[in-house]
Amino acid sequence: MSLFLSQNNKYPLARRPFTSINPEKMNPYTQKHQQIIGILTLLSGIIALGSMIVGLVATNYDFETFSSPEQLLDMAGATPVLIKWFMLLDMFGYYLLLLPVICYAHRRMETVTPWASLISASGFAYVIIGAIGAAALASAWPALMVNYRTAAADTKDIYKAAFLFSNDLVVKGIWNTLEVWLAGVWWLGLGMFTVNGRALKITTIVLAIACMLDGLGEAIGAPGLADFGLNIYLLFAIVWAMWIGFAMLRGKY
After folding, report:
1. Closest CA to 184 of 223, 215, 156
2. CB-based burial label for 72 (10 Å; 0-12, 13-18, 19+)
3. What are phi and psi of 107, to 5 degrees?
4. pTM score, two decimals?
5. Alpha-carbon span 101 to 40, nearest angstrom
């Protein structure tokens, strides 16, 4: 009790005023820091592109498989190893390697908008939630594919049902219903408050809208709208990461 009571103030800790942190007094990002973040962000785009290439190879360049991934179970060229690397590259390319630029952009936004914390929190949530989904599928899908192909004919439906469940849970649920809204808020915030160049600003805002269209399509049961938004996101996220990475390397972001 002596830790909390004093002669002058019964609850001293409760009456201490909160102090705000001035972003301008925090340690600034040096040019070297910016270049490192630029390289990581550029690498994010390159790895995300690699993920799409591996995914296309794994699906025999059949784009319809991305909408109906259960076709992978009976697809001869879709090996479990390729699918695992497809998801691992997705985890790093579309998600984890964006963490440094989220921190960097947050520092820029703090001096511009009171919504900086909400916007950056959405970015962090997008990356973590998306990466968890990719990691789960990197483990689940290859195992289910092996079990399906080696199972007896009368038990194959069990593994197919499990595969469909994992797809509904991660792809349609975690990714295309939840994470895309968080990604949309983050990219919209970046486009409004941190990006100055007209072309890059438009690209960033279009990327944000595409994410939200994907989420809206899933929410109202409009697969055409969801696929339209998803396809734009998959392409523009790669372009955006490379663009921002190059801009940071040149000291223009």
Report:
1. 215
2. buried
3. -60, -35
4. 0.86
5. 8
User: Are the beta carbons of 117 and 181 closer than 8 angstroms?
Assistant: no
Q: How many CB atoms lie within 10 A of CB 163?
A: 21
Q: How far is CA 13 from the centre of its chain?
A: 39
pLDDT digit of tens for each residue in the chain (253 aa)? 333 333 444 434 444 443 445 555 566 788 899 999 999 999 999 999 999 999 999 888 887 787 788 888 888 778 899 999 999 999 999 999 999 999 999 999 999 999 999 999 999 999 999 999 999 999 999 999 999 999 998 899 999 999 999 999 999 999 999 999 999 999 999 999 999 899 999 999 999 999 999 999 999 999 999 999 999 999 999 999 999 999 999 988 8
Distance CA(246)–CA(179), nearest Å, equals 26
Burial class (CB in 10 A: 0-12, 13-18, 19+), 14: exposed
What is the C-alpha R_g of the chain? 22
Please work out, in degrees rounded to the nearest 5, the angle formed at the alpha carbon of residue 133 by the alpha carbons of 129 and 139. Answer: 145
C-alpha separations of 111 from 46, 50, 88, 114 in Å: 31, 36, 36, 8
Residue with tokens 């439906």: 157
Q: Rounded CA gap, 202 and 7, in Å?
A: 61
**DSSP element (H, E) containing 134:** helix 116-150
181, two tokens:
């809204």
Angle (CA) 91 109 38, round 5°: 45
d(CA 25, CA 21): 8
Could you give the CA distance from residue 210 to residue 116 in angstroms, rounded to a whole number? 21
